């Protein structure tokens, strides 16, 4: 590792970043640009970089993954080093990183899962969207999931973009999926899938739906599927549209058009010929997932019927006392990701599930910063993450410039951490190792007519 001959080399400010998703890379990018004298080391739990860009973003959204090109430029910058296969909080503590670096930026995302808190959520046939997405995207820890897709109806709880990604993957014609970087086991399971109907359930109404127009449009246009909405859910929505703010207005208009308008001849024909159905079910919350008494697998879900109190974004769902049972063999809960604490020495707000911070400065912890989903909670797209990561980098640079962050004493940086890791039997994967994995995946993909065939286990990744 660099600078072996010059212990405690020079007085360059040394910063380390925990996590190599968009937050880690955008923080690094801004730091390197604003302070060309800085050394930035990125530590990542997995042997491969890019976080949810690799393991979250849907396989049929290749254009979203173009950010990887920018991240790669950052990783290859002379001031930047990548150390994969290092779990901070286990292989090395945050305190040890703080000893070795002038500043530590925590950008390890939101790897936990919000649970529904209803009876039956542990039944066979119930999955979190996080695990389901991880399964089709090749996240090593989710490869055992092998979801049972032998039922006809699937219920997805939640109506955000992740819910729509899952619905789209469940319903997409296999000819579309096989040209993406979806994993081979997922492709095979989906080719055999019996799922024909996907209900996407939300607590509130059409005006509160959490997806964006791009994802809705993709559902509307998904080949071989037709929408099936409940007209009564849209009562009053038409009148409310004109007062909605712009992005919400366009989204609602598209929903209204899909649900209420009589389609033209061509579209009608397309819908008539479709073999699969998707539908939004509004004003419903899960109460219980019900088991088949014979095999103890998911057989249905009991939903509470809600009504709204108030209007617009702030409207609250309140129970009416009515319930509705829906038969289904698959339930996927997509009600949000959640950050987890990784080290007891780091302040953590358990109720908000974030590291408490102001402008990315971790409260009451000098030299400690945070960015990305860990800083804001798990909302927003990559562009949102980019902006909040640039903000954190700005705070850090400001603190270096103003002297609030003491960078006068030399720090050992990766030199001392590498020593610790070696003692602990941890072998970091550097960026050129990842590039070897990358080229293996690309050539395997080429052979299969896909952009990439991902390696699915950590052992396999480390073997290249
Ligand atoms: P992450 O991307 O989660 O990165 C965190 C990194 O930290 C990971 O690499 C993780 O392995 C690593 N890590 C975790 N724990 C440790 C540890 N203890 N030590 C070291 N490293 C650790 N946005 C879009 O713009 N377009 C989309 O199409 C889109 N699709 C999405 C689909 C899904 C299913 C999800 C969940 C999100 C999607 N997003 C999309 C949002 C986007 O992925 C996020 O905005 C972004 O990834 C958040 O970045 P992050 O760096 O905070 O977290």
Topology record:
Elements: E1 14-18, H1 22-34, E2 39-43, H2 52-55, H3 67-75, E3 80-83, H4 94-100, E4 103-106, E5 112-113, E6 126-128, H5 129-137, E7 153-157, H6 161-171, H7 174-177, H8 184-191, E8 197-201, H9 213-220, E9 225-227, H10 237-241, H11 246-260, H12 265-273, E10 276-281, E11 284-291, E12 298-309, E13 316-327, E14 330-333, E15 337-338, E16 357-358, E17 361-362, E18 368-370, H13 373-376, H14 382-402, H15 414-423, H16 431-448, H17 458-462
Parallel strand pairs: 1-2, 1-4, 2-3, 4-18, 6-14, 7-8, 7-14, 8-10, 9-10
Antiparallel strand pairs: 5-15, 11-12, 12-13, 16-17
Subcellular location: Mitochondrion
Protein name: NADPH:adrenodoxin oxidoreductase, mitochondrial
GO biological process, one term: cholesterol metabolic process
Written overview of the protein:
Its cofactor is FAD. It is an enzyme of class 1 (oxidoreductase). It comes from Dicentrarchus labrax (European seabass). It catalyses: 2 reduced [adrenodoxin] + NADP(+) + H(+) = 2 oxidized [adrenodoxin] + NADPH. With 464 residues, the chain is α/β, with parallel strands linked by helices. The protein has a six-stranded parallel sheet. Strands 3-2-1-4-18 form a five-stranded parallel sheet, with helices on both faces. A three-stranded antiparallel sheet has the order 11-12-13, with no helix packed on it. It has 17 helices and 18 strands. It binds flavin-adenine dinucleotide.
